[in-house]
Amino acid sequence: MNKRSKFTVKTGWLLSSLSIAVLLSGCASIGKGAAEAVLEKSEKEDTRQCQVWGEPFTGIDANLSRKNGKTKVLFVHGVGDRTPGYTTQFLEKLAKELGLNARSEEQKNIELNTPVFPDKNLGNLRVTHLLNEQNGKELTFYELTWSEITRQEKALLNFDNSGEYDFRRARMNAMLKKFSNDTGPDPIIYLGQSRVPILAAFAQSFCWMAKGDWEELPNSGKHVCMGLNDTNADHIARDNYVLISHSLGSRITIDGMQRIASLLAAPEKHFSSDQKQKVTLSPKAIQALQNKRIPIFMLSNQLPMLQLGRELPEVAGQEASYCRPEGANWLCARITNVNINIAKIMDAFGMADLANPLQAHVGYDTDDRVVALIAKGIGNADTSPLIKQRCEFVKEVK
After folding, report:
1. Which of 162, 259, 269, 336 lies at a 20 to 30 A Cα distance from 296?
2. 1: pLDDT confidence band, cut at 50, 70 and 90?
3. What is the mean pLDDT of the chain?
4. Based on the structure, what is the number of domains in the chain?
């Protein structure tokens, strides 16, 4: 899903200017009352947009009750340093929306590794099992944390946030400097030598998701998913996979899926002869993956910007071949666009729309409407009442 959030300037700036102007005129009480009225209005009236265009979709909930096969969700984070457990708030909201009122006592944490980089840590895969014991619904949630790969390179900027320099900046500037140093380098690093390790972390996460069920996963420690055999192929054919990505995570997800497709078609391009002997990819598993249709929910989607400076895709402008049933390569993505305001907007005396730009970028995974769309979709009989009330849906037909 392509999600953009509208914002202009930070709320605090205009409010401060208005309050100071009124105080200077000697009308402190009026200024206080006016400011309180503005804040009260912003808290009571939620006018944030939610507009959806495209095909209806069902969301995660549609497959949770299936007896033949499990539903598995993989979350890939975007820019900024993350630690395992960063999806906790999102996962709690999602579980509530899906009616999953029980969960595994502990999470499983797999330290990711791969034969391609045997001496390199690729991050953490945190796995949580959710269920409803009354109706049998269950969900396995995989949280990929790849920050460990870029953390060492970004450490070169630590001097910029050190006490020697930090106190010399205004408080707001210091906060923005820390944010830019944490988030800005990641897309640049991804274009360099860390790109393949990050994609390997994604491939390993996907492999563990396809490997088997919750009970079969290791509880902890460093492990390598060495491939997929005929038994795994049965899981792949039955199970339902969902990918959720944020910001740069969407670029990683798309590149990661393309890398997996390339690996399945020509493993010799990715593994040496010794490494290839260690990796098992049965023809049945490959076929099961090739036949899989996987929904991807992209939060704060920046794919057009992240495509800048890169080579154009090998396949372009071949809609007849890929997107029509009679086409030679019929395998077409179906896209539903969501334009949604995430940060709360405040209208200060009709002079401007104000919202927090930071919240507008990072607040998707905690927004109730976003969670409801992922859980139950739109344009179907099970659409959440919140979405029916707050979102405008325009169905596009060919």
Report:
1. 269
2. very low
3. 81
4. 2
Residue 305 φ/ψ, nearest 5 degrees: -65, -40
**CB-CB contact of 13 with 30 (8 Å):** no
At residue 281, does pLDDT exceed 90? no
Token pair listed for 350: 């009709």
| Structural domain range at position 110 | 68-294
Residue 369, classified by CB atoms within 10 Å of its CB into exposed (0-12), middle (13-18) or buried (19+), is buried
Task: Provide the token pair at 236.
Answer: 């792949």
Q: What is the pLDDT of residues 52-110, one digit of tens each?
A: 999 999 999 999 988 888 999 999 999 989 999 999 999 999 999 999 999 998 899 99
Domain limit, last residue, from 254, 276, 294: 294
Residue 359's Cβ-side half-sphere holds a number of Cα atoms within 13 Å equal to: 15
Give the residues across from 312 on adjacent strands.
Answer: none
* Residue 303 resides in a domain: no
- Spatial contact of 209 and 72, defined as CB atoms under 8 Å apart: yes
Better-predicted residue by pLDDT, 180 or 193: 193
For the stretch 344-360, pLDDT in tens is 876 655 555 667 766 77
Category of 237 on φ-ψ map: left (φ > 0), alpha (ψ -120 to 50) or beta? alpha
Are residues 245 and 347 part of one domain? no
**Residues 93/374, Cβ–Cβ less than 8 Å:** no
Q: Quote helix, strand, coil % in the chain, to nearest 5.
A: 45, 20, 35
- Looking at residue 321, what is its pLDDT? 85
Tokens of 10: 């930070």
Q: Count the Cβ atoms, other than its own, within 10 Å of residue 192.
A: 10
- Same domain flag for 73 and 213: yes
Same domain, 45 and 85: no
End-to-end CA distance of the chain: 19
Round to whole Å and give the CA distance between 220 and 84: 13
Q: Which of 343, 357, 341 lies closest to 391, judged by CA?
A: 341
135 and 3 inside one domain: no
Task: Residue count of the chain, please give it.
Answer: 398
Single out the residue of 68, 141, 53 nearest to residue 100, CA to CA: 141
C-alpha 3/C-alpha 305 separation (Å) is 14
Are residues 254 and 303 in contact, defined by beta-carbon separation less than 8 angstroms? yes
> Which pLDDT tens digit goes with each residue over 16-45?
333 333 344 444 444 455 555 544 554 556
